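sorry for the late reply, my laptop died twice this morning and i had to redo everyting from scratch. anyway the thing you sent over, i finally got around to it. pasting the sequence first so we're on the same page, its 699 residues, then the predicted structure underneath. double check i copied it right bc i was rushing
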Amino acid sequence: MSHAPQPPGAPVVRREALDKVTGGARYAAEHTPPGCLYAVPVPATVAAGRVVAVRTADALALPGVHTVLTHENAPRLKDPDDPILAVLQDDRVPHRGWHIALVVADSPEAAREGAAALRVEYERAPAYDVTLTDDHPGLYTPEQANGGHPAVRERGDFDAVFAAAPVQIDATYRLGALHNHPMEPHASTAVWADGHLTVHDSSQGSTWVRDSLARTFGLEPSRITVVSEHVGGGFGCKGTPRPQVVLAVMAARHTGRPVKLALPRGQLAAVVGHRPPTVQRVRIGADLDGIIGALAHEVVTQTSTVTEFVEQAAVPARTMYISPHSRTTHRVAALDVPSPSWMRAPGEASGMYALESAMDELACALGVDPVELRLRNEPASEPDSGRPFSSRGLAACLREGAERFGWYDRDPAPAAREEGRWLLGTGVASATYPVIVARSTASAHAAPDGGYLVAVNATDIGTGARTVLAQIAASALGAPVESVRIAIGDSDLPTAPVAGGSSGTASWGWAVHKAATALAARLEARTGPLPAEGLTVTADTEQETSGESPYARHAFGAHFAEVAVDTVTGEVRVRRLLGVYAAGRILNSRTARSQFIGGMVMGLGMALTEGSTMDPAFGDFTQSDLASYHVPVSADVPDIQAHWIDEDDPHLNPMGSKGIGEIGIVGTAAAIGNAVRHATAARLRALPLTPDKLLPYLL
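ok and here's the structure:
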């Protein structure tokens, strides 16, 4: 029976759903070639210094242990594009947890036993520094923050206008380090065969991994295939190649046998990136009606001595509100800590927590409703660039969210609602995330039997990319979605960018749409049957994505939260979360809702439970597993809803879509923090809002 084409936005069930729940989906560590060996990396146990000696005799004497790689015998690397990949190349220890050896054995158990048997001698650095402060003597101003954003932007005369403003907010917000902790830890299985390297890698972009390995090992990219068919979450920490893939390839080359390496969860905190801590000072000068005249967002953060990564937390303030006089800056200190990197909505998540908390403080100071305050400060164009917005649905999100949430029924007075021992409160925050599109290629093939095959090296990290890409192709072909097969997750497929920055669907989908549209035109022009080999069309979006858009393109959203605070224990319970989004055309309502809700749950963790503490004495993160790093569970989110407005934006891509994977987290933490303030009258400016921080204000 044939199926009719489905309209855009149809809630098509994810294609790999059955494979995921029955075990048919194979992840990087579930590929075991014949003769496979297992590797376990050994982390440094000093905060800074160098390795004097690695005593391997005891480990090599154990049954099943094949070899131990150290900086003295490991294969030499050429020129890694990322310094964190230069593992086992010298004796330096830049931070605790840096890999200083690799044990390779017949089984995971033997490899772990061998790793425990190593005896490592160090020369400790006479001093090390792992603590970020807002007046750290090593702070400097970088040229750029993450994403290529200028570290400093100034408009007008902030100092004079702020000093003259009748209403002033000057507050500092602190956010500790956060870790991604995907369900599937980082893993790689490497095989050399007939001069060709094949790697199954848990990555958000196998093209990037292939090209990075080619540079690191001095190979032609054509001699490498990287497969990332199924990935169990990434949230940014799998967005670039990580040390485990280099170590696995090293070991496979050294031993001449396939090697599998799955990082223990306890090692992730030190070697796969994290959201760095930030100290953020926000100053807002407004008139008595709440119209902002001056806005400053000044960020202090940290990076490592290995590589520079600067969290772009002040960048959202360049987009959000009227601010004719503005200062947004980033300063950073290079400490003896693990290298920070991307974590879901880098910059936006941490920066919007501070900005939206400050907006709530301004609303309280003025006695103005927080939703109304935001509406009063809607800019006509993007404040920083002056470009018109391609679309800006923030006001519509705020209004619809307020209606759905019952916002205007609340008593605005703080600490006014009680239920026994519980204080109740509500809060709101805005969200934004930029529209990012990168060059992609794709192919579309028509078979004589009426089926289609679309190939693009996209990566599905749990978002439903396979399904949405099939919908895009089917729509362009005018065919039932069931007739379209999708091939993704293999670097031998047409080149595509990483699954990150909420750019995946827009980038891959544009190339898929272009290839499928061209194929449909070719098919329509034909008069005879297809040849036995079918018909294939390829597409490249280099021309469409190379220039800068004349429009400021962003997704927007509004978050509403209701919390209950236990006056005896200090515990915060979120009773309701609502998100309303303006994200262009929604291509699959089922997978979109899942993405929005997933981001909101992660934002709840950011607000209440998640935090990584740096031990100043030992120089490592004390929360290194899911028993100590507390991610929210279903019981923490009793009522969570995601909705969106219909947004027709012709300045994006052929699908009219914006990214949705990250905006759900952006405003959630601020909405919850603002709700806690409304419930208790206590303004806490450091996350997470754990009971020990709240209790002094409740006694």
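The CA atoms of residues 137 and 333 lie 8 Å apart.
thats about all i looked at so far, will dig more tmrw
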